[in-house]
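Dear Dr. V.,

Thank you for agreeing to look over these. As mentioned in my earlier message, I'm a first-year student in the group and I'm still getting used to reading structure tokens, so any feedback on how I've presented them would be very welcome. I ran two proteins. I've put each sequence directly above its structure. The first is here:
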Amino acid sequence: MNNVRGSALRAAAGILLALALLLPPSADAQDAKTEILWLGQSAMRIKTPGGKVIVTDPWLISNPKTPAQYKDLDALGKVDLVLVSHAHFDHFEDAPALAKRNNAPIVTPAGLQSTMLELDLVPANLAYRVNKGSVFMPIPGSNIKVWMVHAEHDSELVYTNPTTKKREVHVGGEPVGYIIELENGFKIYHMGDTGLFGDMKLIGDFHKPDLVMMPIGGHFVMGPKEAALATKEYLKPKYVLPMHYGTSPQLAGTTAQFQEALGTTPTKVFPISPGEKIEF
């Protein structure tokens, strides 16, 4: 009997997802704006047209580039979803705390999801299980759609055991980026940490992102020249928001170098500073 009931519930959930994918954006969502607040490195607060808040790669408290007022996690307001691209501290450090204080799902690479549960970093109900594949809808009651896509990087979790005080290295899964389709159809590609790879063109052709949040710092990620090539040849978005630069001496790439390498292009670049916002 339980198996039958479980099968029926799974079937019903599948039907609801299929219907949600077919629903057109609401008139309110189409007219409302999307607000992006850059918090330094790869941390973004996205306020969606439907009133949801998504935070990416939250490294805030110890981030030297995060404005002082946002080092208080409550200053972000109610958060509905946390997206983490990989396990390195400068993308993950404040993610468990942010998810727990907002009772929000936290999406991570699959291996990192398992490690979070093993180390009891978040409750099981918040550790959203997914992998690189098809679309998923992690915010209950919302038609926001997310895809997890490839990134060229690594993703081990370095963890200080609170009992032994010793440094441990745990599985962090494969690094990823995210395609986020908002209620009005506006698509954001948060690239996470990545080097240049040819299948960026496939991602661009398939998803056609409007806005790309792109690392340009170099050394650990794409530098300005690689980022410019990805923009012009592979992704061809309407807008680029440069990120992941200027936080450490190794991340020496600048927005000026990126724009120079980009040259004349239809893509609009937003060279903003941490703490500044843009709207669409």
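The second protein is here, in the same arrangement:
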Amino acid sequence: MIGNILTFEIEDKFDSDNPSNEKAIKRSRIIPNLIHLLDFLDQEKAKATFFILGIVSETFPEVVALINSRGHEIASHGMSHNKIASLAPDKLEFELKRSKELLEAVIRKPVLGFRAADDYLNSKYLEIYGHIAGSGYDYDCSFLGRGPRIEINRPFMLTSSENKSIAVIPQSLRRALWFHIRFGEKTRAFPTWFIRSSIDGLNQNGLAAMINMKLWEIDRHHPRPINSDYWDYGTFGNIQFAEEKLRILLENYKFVSCSEYLELNLKKR
């Protein structure tokens, strides 16, 4: 049975929209939502990788400790929610290294994975991948699309212009006519049959699907950010069904963390 990949981004919606908003952090809903999610995953006997935003781990180190104590993988989501592709090299280094340091100070073991908070990356960003690898990460989950000799949906090793290598787990795509649909993101917005058929299609070809959710997506009563469009389907659509869709996926597919998947995958190759 193919081990698919389950990941969560630990952030508040209003934190990610307003990363310097102190009041938003003070009224965070992360801890109650996280306890609910961890209990839910225990019930379904599922393990996942949690990409934790640096401002969250700095403000709530107990969040990191709690996730780690429940047997899930801790990984970095960067320090803030800025677009890393637009950051100056020194700012990028800070985003990568400071977030890693904060997480490792709590769990007292290496943090291996990174996922960009507000960007996707591709083979054009070799310099950024050089910084990610140079900051001590073993793998990245930010890649979207394809590159030279790169097959979509299959993990690969990427070597930067500085000759630094890092394992890349690409975001899951489904071909539909001339388009590629990123079905592993905003799972709540797609029909359940579409998500399942997309996972089945990959699994039948010996490939794993990566399903990624943001913690706030399982909070059906999550407050909308100031000045946001309450009825924006792309942002909030089907949020009331997100947990039920996750339950269906966990009951029908095997899921593992990123590190476990890479370990199993690289052993086979």
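From my reading of the second output: The CA atoms of residues 88 and 138 lie 22 Å apart. The two ends are 17 Å apart (CA to CA). Does that match how you would interpret it?

Kind regards,
E.
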